[in-house]
Amino acid sequence: MTEQNVVVIVLDTARADVVTSMMEEGELPELAAIGEAGVTFSQCFSSAPWTLPSHASLFTGVTPSKHGAHAGHKRLEGDNETIAEVFRRNGYETVAVSNNTWISEEFGFAKGFETFRKTWQFVQSDTDLGRIARTEEGVDKLKAVGRELFTGNPAVNFANALYGKFARDHHDDDGAKQTNEWITDWLSERGEDRPFFLFINYMEPHLEYRPPERFAERFLPAGVSSDDAIDVRQDAWKYVADKIEVSDRDFTILQALYRAEIAYLDSRIGELKQSLKRNGEFEDTVFVVMGDHGENIGDHGLMDHQYCLYDTLLHVPLLLSGGAFTGGKTVDDLVQLIDIVPTLLDEVGIEAAEFQSQLQGRSFHPDAESDPRNRVIAEYMSPQPSMEALEKRVGVLPESVSRYDRSLRALRTREWKLIRGSDGTRELYHVTEDPGETDDLVESNPDRVETLERELDEWLDSFERADDSSDVDMRQETKDRLEDLGYLQ
Question: ∠46-47-49 over CA atoms, to 5°?
């Protein structure tokens, strides 16, 4: 077995078209350097449009229908083996650093990791007082802290509460700085001969967009200050429910802030690479950078990353460097995030026959014998937030919003894309001629629709689907933190 380290980095909410254009314009020098040394996959697609099911697919190499983690069942259950478990069983030190509450042990993502670091806590604990310290005031804060302080270890809880109030809740950093500091210390202290598998979720491109001022100023339109930009409303759910208006100018500003967040994260990735190099680890490392899903910033009349399966949410960046991934090539083959698991196992020489039998992904390693994909598939198993949660947050919903109360599946080839809803709706786009998916051709191409539907149904019939449809209990503190991030429960 090759003694290679593996680093997998998720740029949470990074969409491919924005990252690609910024790389081409010289705005992401660190990612560009990774691409120049390695391989860029220009046609990579997620299996789901939001964090929990997308990461579940990334970790297991299977789609949401098979692993069963989605808005209707918010947990990756134990019968789904993960890549971290495989690496650990084969002698790797396995470490994760998460900045997103969904990616935590509470939702089944810590399996196989010897170390699982949550940056929203100063001392790692199951009790999370950070949200209370950040959001409550006066007597309410004292009451809330009093209720929770003596759950578990009071000293730990108090430390985390202070951390959430005074340290972690930066206005211009969603954890990347703390992530890199922790990893730098871990690298210098680990004293291990074993290779490591390191997973990182960076949150910066996620709503709300609050980049450091020096980055925001590089991208904002003329005449718009950083202070002006931060005042633009970023309430995706009120916008979706027609409770607020967001002008074209506002969306231009939000798009600029989003680009600034990605540029800031690019600099932090460069910092991470330097830490690996200083500790003599980078040359023996396969370095993977991807998005887990994209983002709508006014696209298709939406904000955030829910309620649709358009390429704005599914088309994600993917770059690999190290090992067999060299030469600065761009590969235009269709690939999915579920393909990363078998590809990495091929790269490090782990066979894991039983785990491989679980996979729906196929290796795109240069030495793999698998054929290139002729289509990719994505699933949105149930709306997140539900109509009930949305109404609780924003008030009575207009009738038009009910169209989002459905599940969706999409099948995409190089030329065509079919989106099928549980409400009986069908959409068809000729994506080579209409990459923005603005011209629905479903009425004029019934034969094409029938062919793609048949292929989708044959795929669904080819495996046993998970029957997880029950809601999963989560702690109130977790619900509150998810709402801080814009996820309504």
Answer: 70
